[in-house]
Design goal:
Length: 347
């Protein structure tokens, strides 16, 4: 790991000057300051915010970067991470990257500078800066929920990843609706660039094919994984010359936006339009009608991410792996079925 002395030698200045630049304790000439900052970037030096005695020691802490505030699904994952970390004797430092690529890199850097032993991250739609930082500093990391296409080794992915199955459960929603007689099934998909979005779109298309239905690109709209975006996407779908008779939503936040758009049109679910959603949530069976949904194992995903990270710390040279956990199909009434069983079955 580069030291302040290494930065000083590279910049051609004293260690004291480097300290003044990094800590803002004394004015430094602009060209000298820039030379120091360039050396910091080139060497990959990071400020140690803990005591110097901890540079080579484990802190028994884990950094978690997920958008738990803006995405309720991640709250469940957070609970799983926290429980597993505490059980293993690790503390947890949490940061919200707000699904913004630049902020994502910054918060992971801040966690790293606090000398966490490793990080667990739900990556944004453009994780290039994150991948570059993790690779440059050799930070032990596990990606959860969303997969990344970062540089891979000959034997597999470069980073460990833990997520739910996405394609087959989405296909199941589509074939269920097709089995009820629907021939125009729309999808309100998530933010482009996310692996969850692309995999659920793949599942949607395979479900149509399995049911013998042709894919119509006009029936797929992106709701950008948010309620407001889903409301606009639903309005666009309903404005088609021949609108869909059933909808599948890509996550729980978008389900709220879809329901709001349908309500504004005075449409009733499932009498006027059937609805199925990816992501179950605690109050889904309190809606009228109760929502047919795919339930993801959020807590299990969080806990497994911790276990995979601890395995990585114990065996740094172990090949990276991707772990997928099964979802459950929760059959209620928004799909149009009269009185289905409410028991979830593995998808």
């Amino acid at each position: 790991m580069p030291t302040m002395a290494d930065v000083a030698r590279s910049a051609g200045v004293s260690v004291a000057t480097v300290s003044h630049v990094l800590n803002g304790t004394r004015p430094v000439l602009p060209h000298t300051r820039q030379a120091v900052l360039d050396a910091v970037e080139e060497l990959g030096y990071t400020t140690n915010t803990l005591a110097r005695s901890l540079v080579t020691a484990r802190t028994r802490s884990i950094g978690l970067a997920v958008s738990a505030i803006s995405n309720p699904y991640f709250t469940e994952i957070l609970q799983g991470v926290e429980a597993a970390a505490l059980e293993a004797g690790y503390s947890l430092l949490i940061a919200d990257p707000h699904d913004d690529p630049e902020h994502e890199r910054k918060v992971v850097q801040l966690l790293h500078e606090r000398r966490v032993d490793g990080v667990i991250v739900a990556p944004s739609a453009d994780p290039r800066g994150l991948l570059a930082y993790l690779g440059r500093h050799d930070v032990p990391a596990v990606f959860l929920d969303r997969l990344v296409d970062g540089p891979a080794t000959d034997s597999g992915p470069r980073f460990d990843q833990v997520c739910a199955d996405n394609a087959e459960p989405t296909s199941r929603l589509v074939t269920h609706l097709a089995g009820l007689g629907h021939r125009r099934i729309g999808l309100v998909a998530g933010r482009p660039g996310l692996s969850t979005t692309s995999e659920r779109i793949s599942g949607y298309r395979s479900g149509l094919a399995f049911a013998g239905l042709s894919y119509d690109g006009r029936l797929l709209m992106h709701g950008d994984s948010e309620s407001a975006g889903a409301e606009q996407a639903t309005e666009a779908l309903l404005s088609l010359g021949v609108p869909p008779t059933a909808l599948v939503t890509g996550n729980n936040a978008m389900t709220i936006g879809v329901l709001r758009a349908l309500g504004a049109r005075g449409l009733s679910v499932p009498d006027d339009i059937a609805l199925c959603c990816f992501d179950d949530f605690a109050w889904a069976d309190l809606f009228s009608p109760r929502l047919t949904a795919i339930a993801q194992p959020g807590r299990d995903i969080g806990a497994r991410a911790v276990h995979v990270l601890l395995e990585r710390l114990a065996e740094p040279e172990r090949p990276a792996r991707t772990v997928r956990l099964p979802c459950a199909f929760v059959h209620r009434t928004s799909c149009g079925c009269p009185s289905p069983s409410e028991e979830g079955t593995p998808s």
